Amino acid sequence: MAKKSASKKKCCPCPKKTMRKTRKTRKTRKTKATKTRKSRGKNEFFSLMLKAKKTNAPAFGYKGKTYKRTTTKNGLIFYKKA
Predict the structure, then answer these.
(1) Residue 70: pLDDT above 90?
(2) Strands (E), the chain
(3) Model pTM greater than 0.70?
């Protein structure tokens, strides 16, 4: 009979643990453009609409058009052209 080749024995019966891969974080580049950027502010329509929302106004006018207050099913308040 032929001898069986000696097989390598595992050091322990538990399965090999794999290391978890970590996500690499992206580094943002700071440029001159981002440092000197200024906000433009709100446009005229939006500022009028926010003022009307705060005062619970039923309508407001902008450039000769009136916008009436309406609400959605779930209570969102917005202004629609009338």
Answers:
(1) yes
(2) 59-62, 65-71, 77-81
(3) no
